[in-house]
Amino acid sequence: MKKKMLIASFDMEIGGVERSLLSMLNNFDYKRNQVDLMLYSHNGDLMNLLPHQANLLAEIKAYRTFRMSIREVLKSGKLQIGLTRLAAKCHASFGRSSENGYKQMQYMWKYTLRFLPKLEKSYDIAISYLWPHYFVAEKVKATTKIAWIHTDYSTIDTNIKEDLNMWSKFDYLVAVSNECKHAFIKKYPILKEKVVVIENIMSPIFVRKLANEKIEHPLIRDHRFKIMTVARLSYAKGIDHAVEALKVLKNRGYDNIAWYVVGYGGDETIVRELIDKHDLKESFILLGKQTNPYPFMKEADIYVQPSRYEGKAVTVGEAQILGKPVLITNYPTAQSQVNNKIDGVICDLSVDGIANGIESLYNNPKLRQQLASHCKNANYENNKELEKLYELM
Question: Is the pLDDT of residue 279 over 70?
């Protein structure tokens, strides 16, 4: 008999977590499992890539509000949810927006829970794929509950007591890398026995196939040394550092470098202001949201991930699949992503560190070739990671 499974996440907007979920769903064993997919909002350019074997549940309006502004929620008539959202915003500590945003999200769910409906159906397994995990913790009946850990929790500011109350409702917590696991346990040592590691599912055939799609874009005719980054425009991803690093390189006389970024996010205004400030409009180019980033990645000379913190960046693995020399910053989980000087390079997590790393790769075509060759010959197929999940089930 098939096991009844629920997988819950926010939406299918373009992002690393969403692409990793898509890869998992496309490699799932549907002969053994009957999968319901609960998306709080049926939005996102990746919606049409969902496999038909996964049964997409009807959207529930109350949960869709989490992707709406407070004003939009109040206008929609959801007054109780709107007011609790406002209370959450007031409760969240004020400081760096990237940090108080996590606490605001926590309180938003906590305060809103009483106004959110439960799912009537019972499941053998319920998976919450994206933090905060209150929906599966509180609103789903399941024999086994599993929550995913995608980020380095030692780097973000959350209310630990509230988090522990939520995490305690789960039987297993899945970290996407060993370093991600260790960082989580350091913050929540009492949960150590629940944490297991299951890496993001990589699909080289899928990535290479999409990378071969033809695009019409000036990037193709740009004969400068091209750097590519695919990431949200957010504090965590360090795109502001990237702009500053390119300015450093220009000051050193490297005028033949162009840095392209595929992505969108809340820090776009900050990034554009930095680009204007440093007169880099022709060299630091924002490509915006792209449903298929792989043809752009394919055109790059190197791929750079300037993040301040990561769990395990899906885009880095995808760049390696495409045989790109990769440079990443030395965020706490970097060692799980790259073997330094073998399949990529790890640089200091600073503006100068990024600039120095790029300068070194720019001036060392032999090293770039070695990195690319290693990646092209490596096997990034890891569907067997799903067997770890099946064992938990």
Answer: yes
Q: Give the C-alpha distances (Å, rounded to integers) separating 159 from 85, 99, 103, 121, 316.
A: 17, 11, 6, 31, 30
At 168 the pLDDT is: 93
Token pair in block for residue 244: 């500053």
Check if the beta carbon of residue 325 is closer than 8 Å to that of residue 303. Answer: yes
Give the pair of three-digit tokens for residue 14: 């373009």
* Measured distance CA(135)–CA(48) in Å, rounded: 24
Residue 381: pLDDT band with limits 50, 70, 90: confident
> How much is the pLDDT for 94?
52
Q: Give the separation between CA 18 and CA 67, rounded to whole angstroms.
A: 15
Pair 254, 284: CB distance under 8 Å: no
3-class SS string, 171-226: CEEEECCHHHHHHHHHHCHHHHHHEEECCCCCCHHHHHHHHCCCCCCHHHHCCCEE
Work out the average pLDDT over 223-249: 96
Q: Can you list the alpha helix ranges (DSSP code H) found in 212-313?
A: 239-251, 268-277, 294-298
Q: What is the dihedral of CA 114, 115, 116, 118, to 10 degrees?
A: 60
Tell me the per-residue pLDDT of 172-207, one tens digit each, with 9 for 90 and over: 999 998 888 998 999 999 999 999 999 988 888 889
Indicate the length of the chain as a whole number: 393
Write the single-letter amino acid at 293: P
What is the secondary structure of 19-32 as a DSSP string? HHHHHHHHT--TTT
Of the listed ranges 196-210, 231-245, 312-326, the one predicted with least confidence = 196-210
Residue 323: name the closest of 228, 243, 247 by CA.
Answer: 228
Average pLDDT estimate for 351-374: 97
- The CA distance from 231 to 251, in Å, is 25
Is 0.85 surpassed by the pTM of this model?
A: no
DSSP letters of 309-346?
Answer: --S--HHHHHHHHTT--EEEE--TTGGGT--BTTTBEE
Which residues make Cβ contacts (< 8 Å) with residue 19, sequence separation at least 6?
46, 314, 318
